Amino acid sequence: MTSPLSSNKTHSAIRRFVLGSFLSAAVLAGSGAAYAASSAGGTADTPAPRHDKGARREIRPMNPAERIKRFDKNGDGKLAVAELPEKAQKRLGSADTNKDGFLSADELKARAEQHKKTREARQKERFARKDKNGDGFLTRDEVGDKRWERVKAADGNRDNKLSADELRAAHAARKQKVAR
User: Fold this and answer.
1) CA atoms within a 13 Å half-sphere pointing along the CA-CB vector of 106
2) What does the mean pLDDT of the chain come to?
3) 38-62: string of b/e by CB count within 10 Å (b at 16+)?
4) pLDDT higher than 60, residue 40
5) Collapsing DSSP states into helix, strand and coil, what is residue 163?
6) Cβ partners under 8 Å of residue 177, min gap 6
7) Residue 133 has what pLDDT?
8) What residues have CB less than 8 Å from 134, skipping those under 6 apart?
9) Angle, nearest 10°, between helix axes 105-130 and 64-71?
10) Which of 77, 137, 139, 143 could form a disulfide with 147 if both were Cys (CB 3.0 to 4.6 A apart)?
11) What whole-number distance in Å separates Cα of residue 103 and Cα of residue 27?
12) pTM (2 decimals)?
């Protein structure tokens, strides 16, 4: 005796239901992707750029005039510190050297230059701290096996030691690759 669940009619109905469900899900997913792409600036054929936290973004300095234009909420051509997002107010508020409450292009440029110098000084200090013998190179012994495995690709001349210039060149190459 066969049970009603194992009949051909039942199998056929189950297959149609599963196939229909799968096709419906595919159509919904496709239309959802097209909607998300179009609302984020892309099209169904060319999706918008990804904005998830895991994705690396191109890091380039913003032109001071672009920054002023981007954050000038009231359109008066001047960037008030209060117009900036909260995080940016904390970061860029000190750039207002004349304390007038507005950030000029010159003030933003001067702050960017100072930030660059500070960052370079920190990098030199960090390199010197790792360079235990003071010869101007980092070796596996100085950085440890785990870190060496990550940075050895920067050893352009394959002499098993890294100079600050090799590290800088590898970092610049990686930034170029990310920017593409």
Assistant:
1) 2
2) 78
3) eeeeeeeeeeeeeeeeeeeeeeeee
4) no
5) strand
6) none
7) 92
8) 128
9) 120
10) 143
11) 50
12) 0.55
